[in-house]
Specification:
96 residues; mainly alpha; 84% helix
Length: 96
Amino acid sequence: MCCFVLVLVLGFLGPRLAFLWAWLFTPRVTDAFTGGFWLPLLGLIFLPWTALAYIVVWSFADGVSPAGWFVVALGFLLDIGNYGSRSAQQRFSTAQ
């Protein structure tokens, strides 16, 4: 049970901490999101894997190539899967 809780905590906080670290200590977030403060903040709160993938793809070529959008889509699928697995786990735990 302890390992399961640790995996849930790291899965929830891992991409957010990596994004926050990149935002505070590197110029990548401000370079990738030129629109201001709100879009990176919303990415940090709601879609951390997608925002992190966008930053990584942007930093390689100062823009997002068509192959880069595939990586961003994989980050989005990770976010959706993360939210879906939490709701499935809640349904499973209340059914027992």
